[in-house]
Write a structure and sequence with these properties.
- The chain has 18 helices and 14 strands.
- By secondary structure, the chain is an alpha/beta fold.
- It has 2 domains: 125 residues, P-loop containing nucleotide triphosphate hydrolases (Rossmann fold, 3-Layer(aba) Sandwich); 252 residues, no CATH class.
- The strands form 3 sheets. The chain has a 6-stranded mixed β-sheet with strand order 9-10-11-12-14-13. The chain has a 5-stranded parallel β-sheet with strand order 2-3-4-1-5, sandwiched between helices.
- The protein starts with 5 loop residues before the first helix and ends with a helix.
Amino acid sequence: MFDRRLFPVLLADIDEAPAVALLGPRQVGKTTLALEIASIRRSVYLDLESERDRAKLEQAELYLAEHLDKLIILDEVHRAPGLFLVLRGLIDQARRAGQRSGHYLLLGSASLDLLKQSGESLAGRISYRELSPLDVTEVGVARIDSLWVRGGFPDSLQAGSAAHSLRWRQDFIRTYLERDVPQFGPRIAPQSLRLLWTMLAHQQGGMLNAAQLARNLGVDVKTVLGYLNLLVDLLLLRRLPPWHANLGKRLVKAAKIYVRDSGLVHALLDLQDKEALLSHPVVGASWEGFCIEQVLSCAPQRVQGFFYRTSAGAEIDLLLQWPGAELWAIEIKRSLAPKLERGFHVACADLKPVRKIVLYPGAETFPMGNEVQAMPLARLCAELQAKA
């Protein structure tokens, strides 16, 4: 059991909003977290993948009205989209009775379906949180290499051996392809989506070129974009947008694409352990994607992530934009003696960030000149978490 840092945040949300949606991919720990909350609150837990629990909601309004004094936890809520209209009426009924918060905790494995439904019927009545895979602040610095190699899904990280962890992740991918993806989108051939997913792992951190992916898959560009949108909506793929500003520079306009969990990258490429990873060409891109995901997971909710690149070669791996437009420039290096290219300094001169940081796999923080600070990933994540 890990202490998830989202636990107190989620409790505070429940105390403030009538409904809270907790979003995250399967097996990330949403149910475990919800049951932990249920152990300290008067609650009713319903798993909408269970026929018995779905049967209780045949007359949903009658059943839920009997439990207005409890927190109702609805797991895999996308399986019952018709519930949202019922929830809206019950929330409004409770508000009129003076009960303004703490009614529903909705767990969902995808963002798009839940957002569409709630946007139609629960606007102003719901708040959202995303539960990411485990991060370094939750597992500890001593396990950072395991977190990188195996990824942040709890069952993968805690597997008894590297082979068992890899097998778990490969089964996870197969389950998504064969069972979960068809629930959320149009019928997609599992072999086509797996091939796309594998190509994205090979190109981890590359610029999105939908036309090239379409040619490789033998489909049209619109189909590829649909596949990519689905993986983004399932919270398995990140499109890191380019920074745009009127700087008089020719800026790259395509997004960067990352498979969000580094363990899934390695499973798609059949890399069982750190030794296999270190000898593979993806190692640098894998470390970059891992660091970006860790940083964005630990950053406060209103902080946005971008990358910066010009046609002349000025580049920053990750830009954090804080409320008020303050920028932090973050460069990622997998070297104990990191060196910065000229492009980073040119980009910083363009953007004038408040902080300039080089993330590296060492243990100490030290200055590198020109107001640049080399910093371990765990240190930056702890600093960001303290600001959340």
